[in-house]
Give the backbone structure.
Amino acid sequence: MHQLMFVNLPVEDLGRSRSFFTEVGYTFNDDFCDGSALCLELGPTLHAMLLDREHFASFHDSRVAEPGTVETLVCLSARAGRRWTPWSTGPSRPAAPTCGGRITA
């Protein structure tokens, strides 16, 4: 079972994002906030990481989606002792060297 879930989203302006979500009643975990990221608390184990575009881009080799389009990365916690193996590749699924995979026992 997953202990934590982080949805990672690129944002244009961290200050405006913090102000907006604070105004509508959300809180932030400042232990995970810095100059390039905000940790928006959605529930006890559910968080949205609002990342500036440059920081978000560091998680993968593709271009970050343009504003007005949709892109997200989802991170799930796993128990220690699990092994990560890449998803299969082929013509319909190109290799993803820095992200994408399957956790197996």
Notes: The CA atoms of residues 57 and 64 lie 6 Å apart. The longest strand covers residues 5-11.
